[in-house]
């Protein structure tokens, strides 16, 4: 116990180090799995030193985000939230200063637009999605905003599976059943008669699903795909902070902590140069 107190005291001193890497190391050590970290951070918030109070605030924010990620993953597994709520939670993993409630407000405004179309079937749904300007991007560039549902709702531009999610959730809000399916021609929305609307084909409707090989995607599968595409976007843009956050979510609660022991440097600790350890 005495040794632990000495270690904590030393780490608190390191928080004030002029070298940001040293201070970041101390922060990581303080919040790395210690069940009493919250109690310590509450005390550090009362420190007379501004730099310590600032570090305590940063660490509390990190722990809050970690808890939110764990809660989000559990909600997906337990099917607690709607698809739109889950996609909004994925969005804030990338844009962590955005708010899920604000995204859901944008979603409600989108639903208000749809009321004038009286969505009763797939054709009415397609008419709304076209008129509202929901389109897939040109080219194959992996751009994060195309996979962040808040941006998709605001810009009316996004990946086909995100647009299919918007369409399917719109239909559900009017009591119209649909499935989100992956086909040979991309993701689409399939109604009870087997007709499929394809976002990437300007919402063209294929009358017979037998013309396309289809696979129904569940909420959990769509969330996993959403996480995967943002993870890929983080790699292509060299946004390693997001690589860590999204990778941890993809690996799950059981393996997330081990993931970055296994990934090669600079994504993880494996093969890390001695000078960087």
Description:
With 277 residues, this protein is of the alpha+beta class. The chain folds into two domains: 80 residues, Leucine-rich Repeat Variant (Alpha Horseshoe); 140 residues. The chain contains eleven helices and five strands. Strands 4-3-2-1-5 form a five-stranded antiparallel β-sheet, with helices on one face. Helix 4 runs antiparallel to helix 5 and helix 6 runs parallel beside helix 8. The protein starts with a helix and ends in a 15-residue tail after the last helix.
- Count of distinct structural domains: 2
Shape: elongated
Biggest beta sheet summary: 5 strands, antiparallel
Q: In oligomeric terms, what are we looking at?
A: single chain
- What's the number of helices? 11
Helix coverage percent of residues? Answer: 55-70%
Instruction: State the low-pLDDT regions, or none.
Output: none
What's the structural blueprint in terms of helices and strands?
Elements lengths: L1 H13 L5 H12 L5 H8 L5 H28 L5 H12 L5 H15 L7 H10 L17 H7 L4 H14 L4 E6 L2 E6 L4 E3 L5 E3 L8 E2 L2 H18 L3 H23 L15
Antiparallel strand pairs: 1-2, 1-5, 2-3, 3-4
Helix pairs in contact: 1-2, 2-4, 3-4, 4-5, 5-6, 5-10, 6-8, 10-11
């Amino acid at each position: 116990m005495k040794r632990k107190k000495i270690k904590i005291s030393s780490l608190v001193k390191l928080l004030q180090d002029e070298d940001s890497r040293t201070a970041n190391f101390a922060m990581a050590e303080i919040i790395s799995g210690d069940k009493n970290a919250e109690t310590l951070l509450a005390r550090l918030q009362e420190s007379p030193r501004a730099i310590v109070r600032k570090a305590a605030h940063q660490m509390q924010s990190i722990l809050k985000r970690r808890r939110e990620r764990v809660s989000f993953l559990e909600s997906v597994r337990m099917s607690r939230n709607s698809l739109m709520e889950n996609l909004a939670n994925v969005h804030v993993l990338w844009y962590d200063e955005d708010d899920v409630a604000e995204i859901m407000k944008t979603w409600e405004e989108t639903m208000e637009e749809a009321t004038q179309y009286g969505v009763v079937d797939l054709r009415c749904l397609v008419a709304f999605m076209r008129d509202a300007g929901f389109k897939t991007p040109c080219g194959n560039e992996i751009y994060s905003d195309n996979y962040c549902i808040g941006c998709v709702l605001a810009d009316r531009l996004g990946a086909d599976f995100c647009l299919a999610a918007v369409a399917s959730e719109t239909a559900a809000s009017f009591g119209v059943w649909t499935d989100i399916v992956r086909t040979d021609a991309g993701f689409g929305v399939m109604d009870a008669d087997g007709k499929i609307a394809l976002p990437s084909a300007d919402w063209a409707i294929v009358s017979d699903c037998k013309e396309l090989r289809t696979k129904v995607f569940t909420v959990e599968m769509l969330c996993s795909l959403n996480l995967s595409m943002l993870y890929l976007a983080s790699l292509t843009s060299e946004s390693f902070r997001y690589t860590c956050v999204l990778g941890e979510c993809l690996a799950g609660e059981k393996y997330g902590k081990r993931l970055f022991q296994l990934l090669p440097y600079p994504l993880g600790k494996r093969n890390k140069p001695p000078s960087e350890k």
